[in-house]
Amino acid sequence: GSNVLRMSSSIQIKPKTAVQKSKTSSPLPCSPEPAIKPQPKPSDKLNPKTIDPFGARCRPPSAFASMYAKGGIPCRLVHGSVKHRLQWECLPETVPFDPLLVTLAEGLRETKYPYTFVSKEGFKELLMIEGATEKAIPLLPRLVPVLKASLAHSDDEVFGRGLDALVQLSAVVGPSLNDHLKHLLTNVS
């Protein structure tokens, strides 16, 4: 009988202490009323106090960067003491070329590390596997516009990566690339 009495008294005590705490302390930050954030005024854009001309521009990540961050590229950069390399989650021979080779080619336009290294090395390593010719030829209509974009980039390093990728692709697919050269030659010259 005394256990029941204690339980009922402890239940009655807890609400009283909660009520006492709320009376003595300041209002809780998570009040039932939603916090109303002031809407920025159009004139705030012109206010020099709100603009930092030397601040880093917040640019959304590229498609390649977001795919790499999500784990959509089945390889990771391994930092060596002297030389970096890629570590594949599965054998590159078993990786489907269809989305991956085009995605790696899109990554050639990246300007930030490690994306530059992963895209360049991944593209090269995929083209070096046995049977790459048969897998890459059907992708030429999708690869050529992506390589053309990297050849038209204003950054010289991006242009160099695009040119290297074009040379590697040419060595793998051979004369199959001839039909697509008219799209690439203006950017190469």
Automatic annotation (TrEMBL):
Residues 1-12, 19-28 have a biased composition (Polar residues). Transmembrane segments: none annotated. Pfam families: ParcG. It comes from Scopus umbretta (Hammerkop). Residues 29-41 have a biased composition (Pro residues). Residues 1-49 are annotated as: Disordered. This is PACRL protein. It comes from the Eukaryota.
